[in-house]
Every structure is written in C-alpha cells, then in structure tokens.
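Example record for the data management plan.
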Amino acid sequence: MEVSKAINKIILMFGKPLILHTDNGKEFVNERISRLCDEYKIKHVRGRARCPWVQGQVERLNQSLKYMLSSTCLSENLDYKWISIIDRITSSYNSTVHSTTSFAPFRIMFGENADQSANIHYSEEELNLLFADLDSSNMDEKDDVENYMAWKWFTVSSTRTKAVQYSDAAEEKMLKKNMWKNDTSVFKIGEKVVRRIKTDKNKGTRKRYLNEHHDTRIYNVKGFSPTGMVILESEDGREIQEDSRDLASLETN
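Corresponding structural encoding:
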C-alpha cells in the first residue's frame, strides 16, 4: 500500500512516466500496482527473477540508495530507522552528479540544479505574492515569461542530449571491458547456439538452486548490444537478447 501510494504521489506531482521499471519484489508485483499502471496506461517492465545482471539500472540505483541509507543510519545512530531519512537521502541522491551522465538527476529532469530552483525556497503562498504584480496586458513581461520558458526548454533538451551522449560513451567503455574480461564467452556472428533455461521448481522457497536445462530451439547470433548482451535470432525471425553465460555453442557441443 505504501509503495503504490508513493508512486501515485510522484505521478500526480510530475506527471506519468511511459515505463515503470522495477524488480520482481512483492512491493511492485501486486494488484495495486497493476491497477495503478492500468489507470495511467503505464507499461510495467519487470526484470527476470533472481537475475540482477539483466536489470542493471534498478540494481545500481538500489545499491547506491541502500549504501547511503545504511551509512547515514550508522553515523546518526538511528538504529536502522531508514524511513525517517528516506526523503532526505533521495533528495541528496537526486542532487548529486552521476558519474555516467555527468549531471545530477534533478538537472536532467528540470534543467537546473536543485539549489537554483525557486520553488524549493519559497512556499506556494510566497510565490503567488512574488508574481502577483505580473500583468498579462503588459507585453514586455509576457514576452519575458515566454522567453524564459523557451530558454528553460532549450536547457532541459540540451542537458538531456549531453547526458545521453555521456551514457552512450560509458556503455561503449563497459562493453569493451566486458568483452575483454569474458573473451572466451564471445560468440561469432552467424554461430548457432542454444539457450540454457533456468526454471524454479521450488515454489515455496528461493533458497535452492534453479533447475537448468537446454532449450531445444536453435538460435543464430545476430550481434551484440551496447551492454554486452548477445542478440539472437530464432528460426521464425524473432529477436531476443541473452547473456553470453546462458548460451552454449552447437559447434563445441
């Protein structure tokens, strides 16, 4: 209930996203979240269960927030009452420059840093008093507002464009590093492979290992994604992405 309420509050404040990307925790996979996504027509993307390497964005964010929460609780003797500092920690995270994008998440979202935003320092009542003298018939002031909005949108767009460029460069660097570390697992384009399928026969527990077997369908290696995933093409032309560690070459079997 708390998670769905928090997500709904964010949507009402900033607008709905196109995609909600989560893991398979019970907080996100339930009837309330499903109703919320249906109401706002949001596509809910969930990573594969117990495979954190295929949902790197979610796992990386969770890791950072978990470290910030635990270290703050320890330093302030809060006895791990993290709920009392979650808003302060997330605000700190959103105001910190990310090493991949070279921008703070707040700036990518709003086009400026958190300490430059007027609505952080003033209440709604104070803002109304500040802008009360704005006369819609005054063309100079109206033009100033329009020019500011145009500049604002240009700043947001250019910031996001640069962030994507920096992210692409970081992905390429990670791909090269991944290829070098796992060069024995790199397949050739056109090579025929089969997938290792992992299924869970232990419905009541997650403590046992997954049952592993090979898929009977044959795939052709078509290419590689920027994150190091192998792009496969099935015999019926369907494309999927798979981790190289979950593939076996028919040429070596």
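Summary line stored alongside the record: The first helix runs from residue 2 to 14.
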